[in-house]
Amino acid sequence: MTENRVLYKPYQEGLEEFPELSREDCIKAVQFVDVDGKVYSAAEAVFKSLTYSKRWGWLYGYYIKSRFFAGFSESLYRWVARNRR
Q1: Is the pLDDT assigned to residue 12 strictly greater than 70?
Q2: What is the per-residue pLDDT for 85?
């Protein structure tokens, strides 16, 4: 989806490279560190990473503008995270 514009790493590797990340936060949810160093977590991290996609970048704007969509997305993300094992 993001082609080669986003580098994906297991959190164990990311912790070494990004000291601002905590192990606990990484276990709880996906983390996205943008080029400016800002950290995004959970559903927001997913949508923010999609801003680097030619096709799906608009979703982050919708996430930011719609409280309903953001709330639903975060709730769905938490449900998936709790049941991913």
Answers
A1: yes
A2: 67
Please tell me the pTM assigned to this model: 0.89
pLDDT tens-place string over residues 41-56 = 999 999 999 999 999 9
In this structure, what token pair is assigned to residue 72?
A: 């639903």
Residue appearing with tokens 């996609």? 53
| Sequence ranges of the domains in the chain | 11-82
Q: Do residues 55 and 35 touch, judged by C-beta distance below 8 A?
A: no
Q: Could you write out the DSSP letters of every residue in the chain?
A: --TTSS----HHHHHHH-TTS-HHHHHHS-EEE-TTS-EEEHHHHHHHHGGGSTTTTHHHHHHHH-HHHHHHHHHHHHHHHHT--
Q: Which has the closest alpha carbon to 77: 5, 39, 29?
A: 29
At residue 8, φ and ψ (nearest 5 deg) are -100, 135
